[in-house]
Amino acid sequence: MTYNVTSCATTGARPRTARFGLLSHIADRAALLRQRRALKALDAAALEDIGITREEALKEAARPLWDAPESWHW
């Protein structure tokens, strides 16, 4: 079976570019929670590598789960 970038060769349908639905929303929030926990656990050298302070990391990690980054809003 062959697929190309702009359509599915078997159906001609375009692939989905955006994720929709409740399960996707839950998966996104779970990923956000994991990322914030990982950020909180970084050591001083890793924080310096990404250019943020311990205080900034802790502030980001403490944000509520429903407070997603602006880039996530459609």
Question: Can you walk through the features of this model?
Answer:
This protein has helices spanning 22-41, 44-50, 54-61. By secondary structure, it is an all-alpha fold. α1 (22-41) packs antiparallel against α3 (54-61).
How do the strands and helices of this protein lay out in sequence?
Blueprint: H1 22-41, H2 44-50, H3 54-61
Helix pairs in contact: 1-3
Q: What portion of the residues fall into strands of 2 or more residues? A: under 5%
- Total strands: the figure is 0
Q: Can you summarize the main beta sheet? A: none
Distance between the termini: 34 Å
- Could you report the average pLDDT, rounded to the nearest whole number? 78
Number of continuous helical runs: 3
Helicity range: 40-55%
Radius of gyration: 18 Å
Order of helices and strands: HHH
Overall SS class: mainly alpha
Question: What distinguishing features does this structure have?
Answer:
74 residues; mainly alpha; 3 helices
